[in-house]
Amino acid sequence: MGISGHWAFVFGVLGNIISFIVFLSPIPTFNKIYKKKSTEGYQSIPYVIALFSCMLWIYYAFLKTNTTLLITINSFGMLIETIYVGLFLYYAPKKARVNTVKMLLLTVVGGFGAIIVVTQFVFKGAVRGQIVGWICLIFSLCVFVAPLGIVRQVIKTKSVEYMPILLSVFLTISAVMWFFYGLLLKDLNIAAPNILGFIFGILQMILYAMYRKKDNKPIVNVNVEVQNPVIILDDNKKIPELTEEQIIDIVKLGKLVCSGKIQMASTLNQNAAKEVKLTNLQTEEA
Hints:
single chain; 10 helices; mainly alpha; 0% strand
């Protein structure tokens, strides 16, 4: 084993460690699903495609040599993805459950079964390994492209509530490790898809950074109390100036009021005097 072989083993081990974390990263998501007893806005596509991809890579590893590290991590991946899909089916609403079952039948049962039958009976030797390698390359790209459905949802809703950011971060790191592993082994089928995986991982983290702040904005509760209306006089407002005609009218009105009061007073005095005279006459007659 040359220097490149030693480095390939190092990156392969690192790839196993990071990929192990990648496979465990959806645990917080499924913990949330378990607590709420509902899958809500989460999708099963990434987990079904990841399960299918693990099965393909195990098949490819058995057709190649020096690929023990591929077998170990993808065996664990197949087990954990099966658990994830099972939990999703248990808590998903009817429509999401039916779509997930259809996808499983199409990929894991029909697709994987067809690949094994065709490659075993149609192709032989090194060609078989090449064909399976190309298929693995395509579906590895699908693993990285699958979260684009969530990316679309994030852009549409401007919310990262349903974006599994841990999965995005560790997928990006894992892509770097497996890229160097494939490059050092001179296996294009392993190296190539991880380039796109790195790009998509960075894209998801940028979107998360953009929309995370909007999700964290504090909600302000405004309680409006309706009270009895109060009239507020502004002391700063000036009384409008009166015109000469308005002043003359006010003076006339004042005179009329005063003359009216005088006339009323004189009338009252006259009536009082008359009453006094009548009283005196009645007294004298008596």
